[in-house]
Amino acid sequence: MFSVTNFVDFIFPLFFLLFFGIIIYRIIQGAREWNSNNKQPILNVDAKIVSKRAHNSVDTHNHNGHVSSSTDTTYYVTFEVQSGDRLEFKVPSKEYGMLVEGDRGNLIFQGTRYHGFDREI
C-alpha cells in the first residue's frame, strides 16, 4: 500500500540527485567552454557595435521575516564583423557604458571570451 512516508523516502533522494546532477553538469559545461576558449587563437577583427542589452536578475532573501532582494546585471554587446556575422559577448559593466551603438573599431576576442574593443577615432 502507498503511504506518504514511502513517497517522501523516494522523492527526497531523487531531488537530491537531480539538484547535484545539475550543479555537476554546469561545472563540466563551464570547464569545457573555458578549455575550448583557451585552445582558440586571440582574434583582432574590424567590427561595428550593432546592439547592447542588459539582463537583470533579482535574488530575494527572507531572513527571519525580513525580506531583502539584490539585483545582478549582466551586460551584453553585439558586434557585426565584415562578413556580416554577428557575435554577442558578455562585457564588463565599466566597458558597457563606454560602448555606443554604431561605433566601429577593432574587436578582440578568443572563442566566446571577450577581450576588448578599440574604438576608431
Automatic annotation (TrEMBL):
Family matches, as Gene3D superfamilies: 2.40.50.660
InterPro entries attached to this UniProt entry: DUF2500 (IPR019635)
Pfam families, A to Z: DUF2500
Entry's transmembrane regions: 6-28
Record key words, sorted: Membrane, Transmembrane, Transmembrane helix
Protein name per the record: DUF2500 domain-containing protein
Organism for this UniProt entry: Paratissierella segnis
Lineage: Bacteria, Bacillati, Bacillota, Tissierellia, Tissierellales
